Amino acid sequence: MTDHQAAANKIYDEFDRATWKALRANTPLTLDESDLLALRGLDENVALGEVAEVYLPLSRLLNLRVAAVQHLHETTATFLGTLTPRIPFVIGVAGSVAVGKSTTSRVLQALLARWPSHPGVEVVTTDGFLYSNAVLHERNMMHRKGFPESYDVRRLVALLHNLKSGVESVEVPLYSHVTYDVAETSMHMRVPDIVIVEGINVLQVPPTRDTSDDRFVSDYFDFSIYVDAREEDVRQWYIDRTFHLRDVAKTDPRSFFGFLVPMADGAVLDFAEMIWANVNGVNLRENILPTRSRADLILEKGRDHQVERVRLRKR
User: Fold this and answer.
1) What residues contact residue 80 under an 8 Å CB cut-off, 6+ apart?
2) Where are the domains of the chain?
3) Distance of CA 156 to the CA centre of its chain
């Protein structure tokens, strides 16, 4: 047993897939194969069975948590003699590059939006809060893209603060995975019932608190999820993604990854392995993996990208 497993046994209840599946109870499956087609990420084949056995029970748990938090807001409003404020329930989704956070977030968004008590569900990705490539070049930080210092964390914290303060609408910066840069446009978002904040950095905390502003991104979360897998598997998924990006670039001249198109397979493999060894793997070990134990729930994936085990923090 590893040190992590021993620690997890103390603070988490562990469920194999069959046990977790039973917690779905009588929750109906509201997605079909056509829905999943639009939700799948690059090279990640999420099956309808996994949605029914893993994500549907999770949506039931989250629905119950949302109802409990809404009840707390109502209780406080009753005490104060005021109207119940419309404050969104915020879910954080963390994990490595290429582990499947985006697909997890989109599947949860689709399932949660089908519950009648909270139809408004939005996803905010932290990629939009990266400093632009121009700024990263200027600061000689392109090789650190994705590391904590490459994000405008204050801007993300300000957005979450506004959402939790009852601001009726916010502007959310967007990111283009085609140009590999922050987009010039933003998304105007009216306050939804649920906001899913997805990104590798959402559970990270600075080494010391800034006395002028001691708020963390995770301070605004009502629930947090860490998508986990063995590093050797995530590394392979990243390599597979790099080849897929080369294929996409062949038909899209706007793609940042056009430089991969003339490269032979061996050169593309060398490039992907170099980026993993010097950037993404380092970031995972130094900054992302240490936040795993801060999550309320951990989804553990196997080599085939399927969730094999669920760990739920004890209360």
Assistant:
1) none
2) 3-309
3) 14
In CATH, the number for domain 3-309 is: 3.40.50.300
CA dihedral 64, 311, 89, 196 (to 10 degrees): -130
pTM: 0.93
Residue 305 tokens, joined: 């990208």
**Extended beta strands in the chain, E state:** 12-16, 89-95, 121-125, 169-176, 181-190, 194-198, 223-228, 297-301, 307-313
pLDDT digits (tens), the chain, 315 positions: 555 555 556 899 999 999 999 999 888 888 888 887 777 665 567 888 999 999 999 999 999 999 999 999 899 999 999 887 789 999 999 999 999 999 999 999 999 999 888 789 999 999 999 999 999 999 999 999 999 999 999 999 999 999 999 898 999 999 999 999 999 999 999 989 999 999 998 998 866 555 456 788 999 999 999 999 999 999 999 999 999 999 999 999 999 999 999 999 999 999 999 999 999 999 999 999 999 999 999 999 999 999 999 999 997
DSSP letter (8 states) at residue 38: H
